[in-house]
Write a structure and sequence with these properties.
about 110 residues; alpha+beta; Arc Repressor Mutant, subunit A; 3 strands; WH_DNA-bd_sf; PadR family transcriptional regulator PadR; Tscrpt_reg_PadR_N; Metal_resp_DNA-bind_regulator
């Protein structure tokens, strides 16, 4: 078993949460999301991001608008819907519970 496979699965598990957090700060263009995720070492490619954005939109969590660009074709900017905001709040609670649980387990001293 390779550690890299587990690391990739761990990142995939929190990718949706991270994307929703990025979008929660305001309307955002997909390439800006990719840039931030890459800077955070989430290692995401367009082939992963766009299907996930479509799935989140189809679930009613996201909406988008087309904005004219001075340097090319119109750009699609994503924003959270009211349902998406509520969903993100639940994910934040779950994330905090996971952090607390993981910290509890990893900080336990070995018993002899």
């Amino acid at each position: 078993m390779k550690v890299e496979n587990t690391q990739v699965q761990m990142r995939k598990g929190i990718l949706e949460y991270c994307i929703l957090e990025i979008i929660s700060r305001g309307e955002v263009y997909a390439s800006d999301m990719l840039e931030e995720l890459t800077a955070a070492k989430m290692i995401v490619v367009e082939g992963t991001l766009y299907p996930l954005l479509t799935r989140l939109k189809n679930a009613g969590l996201l909406d988008y608008s087309w904005v004219e660009s001075t340097s090319g074709p119109p750009r699609k900017y994503y924003k959270l819907t009211a349902i998406g905001t509520e969903f993100l709040e639940q994910l934040r609670l779950t994330w905090q519970e996971l952090v607390d649980s993981t910290t509890f387990i990893t900080n336990r001293k070995k018993s002899n």
